[in-house]
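Why does residue order matter? Because the sequence determines the fold. Keep that principle in mind as you read this record.
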Amino acid sequence: MSIWSGKRLEPSAIKINLGKYNLIVISLYRSPSGNFAQFILIHSLDLMLKYLNKPGLDFILCGDINVKFLKDIHHKMEITSLFQSYDLFNAINSPSRTENEIWLSN
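Structure:
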């Protein structure tokens, strides 16, 4: 099974070349029923960030990672720590959905 499909991680990306400036915009989706540990550490997100962490390459990471930031403190801390290790931060800090659950998209 591919790490880039199904419930683990579904990325879409575009590379923009503006002269000397290269930018990659990546949109991610993680199913709410997907395994969070596989998504963040074992197979997907960390490997992608390691690949993108190169001098002269800038990227914007966005999408729906389906983490309940206001309820699941453990997953919130894991994803925030991973983002911080690559000098990334959440641009959206309020819930994107409030029906039955509280989620935060990035």
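The two ends are 26 Å apart (CA to CA).
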